[in-house]
Write a structure and sequence with these properties.
Radius of gyration: 20 Å
GO molecular function: FAD binding; UDP-N-acetylmuramate dehydrogenase activity
Number of strands: 16
Number of helices: 6
Strand content: 15-25%
CATH topology of the largest domain: Uridine Diphospho-n-acetylenolpyruvylglucosamine Reductase, domain 3
Shape: globular
Pfam family, one: MurB_C
Number of domains: 3
CATH architecture of the largest domain: 2-Layer Sandwich
CATH class of the largest domain: Alpha Beta
EC number: 1.3.1.98
Catalytic activity: UDP-N-acetyl-alpha-D-muramate + NADP(+) = UDP-N-acetyl-3-O-(1-carboxyvinyl)-alpha-D-glucosamine + NADPH + H(+)
Distance between the termini: 30 Å
Oligomer: single chain
Function: Cell wall formation.
Bound molecules: flavin-adenine dinucleotide
């Protein structure tokens, strides 16, 4: 289908380079389906698909992916933060619906200004709400499931609304299956003050000081057996190592950055080199699209 092919629901479809939707700035073309409401999302996921959020945990191949890539826009990227009077109290509020396509950093800033506490520990995570909920993104200061009331999940079989108690969530996992789309959520937050929320955010922000400011998909490897992957990579002399325009960050060895014009092949080569030099099995933190054997 091209940009001009009409769809049943009017969903916008374009063949686009995926690099522009990722924080690493790498990735070839795919057919992107911009789902602006539930009907469009239902149509978008009628054929094999992948959901793309903020693209902050992905390395997408230079050849792109063969499946449809679904982006949540329009109503599914809108937010209603008004307290629901039936569910809110003097101390706690439950919001209206917040779309899975809402950028998390902007939402966290707004909640701070409103003096609503619960999600400020996730400050600095460059995700969309849906992607962050899907993997329960967080820091040592807090995680997405600290502030959820309801999660709406869309699959080709239909839509269901669940509470956190219905899900087997835990450390960096939501219990929501791969391919199930987090379309919207309602937040459960505590009434606080902008100053108090800001102070909590400052601690989480401080912890990011050593991270590189360049294009990156975040940490490359999980810590093997509790040992810091960054420390192992540093000890293996990997800081500032380059392949093409991809580099292991001089500030922090567990971050690969794009110096400008890096390819996915450059990044894959650096990941392979790091594993070989460190000599300890290290599991990737981010996802490769398509998966590599
Ligand atoms: C600079 C930097 C700092 C980071 N710091 C942290 C941190 O402190 N803590 C942390 O946990 N992570 C961190 N990350 C990693 C990343 O932000 C998280 O993994 C985040 O949850 C990814 O969300 P996303 O919307 O970008 O998802 P994407 O990268 O777009 O996708 C990742 C996965 O989520 C799925 N997905 C995306 N949207 C949806 C949806 N609506 N419904 C269902 N599935 C979906 C995708 O299909 C894919 O499988 C960091 C990344 C960067 C670049």
């Amino acid at each position: 289908m091209t940009a001009t092919t009409p769809s049943r629901t009017g969903v916008r479809v374009e063949r686009l380079p995926l690099a522009r939707f990722t924080t690493l700035g790498v990735g070839g073309e795919a057919e992107v389906w911009f789902a602006a409401n539930h009907a469009q999302l239902a149509e978008a996921i009628e054929a094999p698909y992948r959901v793309l959020g903020g693209g902050s945990n992905l390395v997408i191949a230079d050849a792109g992916v063969p499946e449809r890539v679904v982006r949540l826009t329009g109503e599914l990227a809108g937010r209603d933060l008004e307290p629901d009077p039936a569910l809110s109290t003097d101390t706690e509020i439950v919001t209206g619906w917040v779309g899975g396509g809402v950028p998390l950093p902007g939402l966290i800033r707004t909640l701070q200004k409103l003096g609503l506490s619960g999600l400020e520990g996730t400050v600095g995570i460059p995700a969309q709400v849906g992607g962050a909920v899907w993997m329960n993104a967080g820091t040592r200061y807090g995680e997405m499931f600290d502030g959820l009331h309801t999660v709406e999940i869309v699959t080709p079989q239909g839509t269901r609304q669940v509470t956190p108690d219905d899900l087997e969530w835990g450390y960096r996992q939501s219990g929501i299956a791969r391919g199930e789309v987090v379309s919207r959520v309602r937040l459960r937050l505590t009434r606080s003050t902008p100053e108090a929320v800001l102070e909590k955010m400052t601690h989480a922000d401080e912890a990011r000081k050593g991270q590189p400011k360049m294009k990156t998909p975040g940490c490359a490897f999980k810590n093997p057996g509790g040992v810091s992957a960054g420390k192992l990579m540093d000890e293996a002399g990997l800081k500032s190592t380059r392949v093409g325009a991809a580099m292991i960050a001089p500030e922090h060895a567990n971050f690969i950055v794009n110096l400008g014009g890096a390819s996915a092949a450059d990044v894959h080569a650096l990941l392979d080199l790091a594993r070989e030099r460190v000599g300890v099995p290290m599991e990737l933190e981010y996802e490769l699209w398509p998966e590599r054997g």
